[in-house]
Amino acid sequence: MKAVTWQGRRNVSVDNVPDPILQEDNDAIIEVTSTAICGSDLHLYEVLGPYMDAGDIIGHEPMGRVVEAGPTSGLAVGDRVVVPFTIACGSCWMCDRRLYSQCEITQVREQGSGARLFGYSRLYGSVPGAQAQYLRVPHADFGPVKVGEELPDHRYLFLSDVLPTAWQAVRYADVQPGETLAVFGLGPIGQMAARIGLHLGARVFGIDPIPERREMASRHGVEVFDHHKDTNDEIRDVTEGRGPDGVVDAVGMEAHGSPIAKAAHTAVGMLPDPLGRTLMEHAGIDRLAALHSSIDLVRRGGTISLSGVYGGQASPLPMLTLFDKQVQLRMGQANVKAWIDDLLPLVEDPSDPLGVDDLVTHRLPIDTAPEAYKMFQEKTDGCIKVVLDPQA
């Protein structure tokens, strides 16, 4: 089969690799009909190379049809399914508490990490990823979400990651109807977090330096702001001087405006892998511009929700400010299955209340993945969300 493989920093290729096979009775194999490039895939492309091995299959946002089903998978050949990016058993102590991204059966204990993820480095189990023509799905008796036949892939695909991640981000921000929410970063997660905030009754401010992203958000009623030194003051001016009740940081470790940390990321990427891993694990720092802006902006007693991925173990935080402002922080990988019951009716609603029809900017054959990654990373051609077609 064809698959997108990691080959080095800023270097992915499309290769022929062996087809996956059933390994456990509750496995399934799906033929992938759509698979998206996630913003967090760019961390593998740019920063997390020390945890990757040449030939790793990447990607974690798939949907497709079951072509093989293990006897205890609960699936049948022909089922149309979306596959969450987190791999969870559904029945352990953590899963019973709907903390599926912390599943005790699939935790990567040798790395001190939570549940295994598809296509996401040694940190999360080096599980073969979903940017491929076929995908082996472990714990298929719990993970896959069966969907209907009438709607196109893109109405369901984002249940794999984008929508649950954005929904959790807004819920963690604890904003009530009539309150205010700011979203830093209007990539795919930020776009949907902003729209979900509006859907749940908040007034939403979206901050991003890229005009195409601001334009997309504004089409859905988000009040948009460029990102510059006066942006936070402008938002405080329209929130009675306090700042918003909640802030979602949908940017993460590679925020613009962090030159020292950017240089550190570059240096880590150039070191031999064992040295790079050691540096990340003991002295790694993130590019924290978006987080620092969030801390500055949120009102006193407000909540910051982190959905952007952070990976540094030595990232400095302004603890005096956090304590003095009585800021609450919530964060973590999305517990995808915890939110599906809320989201599935919305993506199937003919009125498309979250505007899922207006997110994908590029649908491309899988063979174009190297060019697609470059375009997405450099934010050219108005690229906001890329979906790859493995069967084209």
From TrEMBL:
Its EC number is 1.2.98.1. InterPro entries: ADH-like_C, ADH-like_N, ADH_Zn_CS, GroES-like_sf, NAD(P)-bd_dom_sf. It comes from the Bacteria. It is an enzyme of class 1 (oxidoreductase). The keyword Zinc applies. Gene3D superfamilies: Medium-chain alcohol dehydrogenases, catalytic domain, NAD(P)-binding Rossmann-like Domain. Residues 188-254 form the Alcohol dehydrogenase-like C-terminal domain. CDD domains: FDH_like_1. Keywords: Metal-binding, Oxidoreductase, Zinc. GO terms for molecular function: formaldehyde dismutase activity; zinc ion binding. SUPFAM superfamilies: GroES-like, NAD(P)-binding Rossmann-fold domains. Residues 25-143 form the Alcohol dehydrogenase-like N-terminal domain. Its cofactor is Zn(2+). Belongs to the zinc-containing alcohol dehydrogenase family. This is Formaldehyde dismutase.
